[in-house]
């Protein structure tokens, strides 16, 4: 009971935020219905924020990569085996500590998105600090890989305000959020019993932008089954380019 109460508090904190808005885990769709960001929907749309695709059987698979936990190889293999493309939002730490995996993502045709170099809260950063953190990662990415990073940004922890959204839009970036996420970011947690599969299936919906973390062993173990099941049910996996 105590643990459930703590998760409820966490969900409320992440949704309401202390400064600006913390988009995300408070946005829970009921069953397989499409969620709505409510009062934030207009703010996001007016400022280049994307959290949901069109109302068709399309899914957009996204991964956040803050640090490597030994599971990215299995995730990449599942994507390869199922011929599925995704976008990986990486940080500076991930780029520097797992360059070989980033190169593998690029070689496999996945999109690399910007999760900022330092993973700092946008709502507590100045415009100059935000752009500097984004551009620092772009430059490091170019230097290490020889490739140009995409203009897709996922705000750290999903924290944003109208100012940060507009800043990114005015500088040619698209802010990418999500419509389906679950607790999968704890480094040592492994639930087993098809945990990730069940979490996705009970809330999948048309146009879902699915957020997953590469640190999760559950995701690595279940990903192939998730993809195969959804494809068998008629869903098509597309990259985020098609909704921008």
Model description:
The chain is an alpha/beta fold and 244 residues long. The protein is 41% helix and 15% strand. It is built from nine helices and ten strands. The protein has helices at 2-16, 39-46, 72-81, 92-97, 99-107, 127-145, 162-170, 195-201, 217-232, and strands at 21-22, 49-50, 58-65, 87-90, 111-114, 152-153, 159-160, 174-176, 208-213, 236-238. The strands form three sheets. Strands 3, 4, 5, 9 and 10 form a five-stranded parallel beta sheet that branches. A three-stranded parallel beta sheet has the order 2-8-6. Helix 3 packs parallel to helix 9 and helix 8 crosses helix 9 (217-232). The radius of gyration is 17 Å and the shape is globular. Residues 1-19 have low confidence and may be disordered.
* Sheet with the most strands, sense and barrel status: 5 strands, parallel
DSSP summary: helix tally? 9
Portion of residues in beta strands equals: 5-15%
CA distance, first residue to last residue: 42 Å
| β-strand number | 10
Write down the Rg: 17 Å
Average pLDDT number: 89
Secondary structure: helix percent: 40-55%
Low-confidence stretches: 1-19
Question: What is the succession of H and E elements?
Answer: HEHEEHEHHEHEEHEHEHE
Shape: globular
By secondary-structure content and strand pairing, the structural class works out as alpha/beta
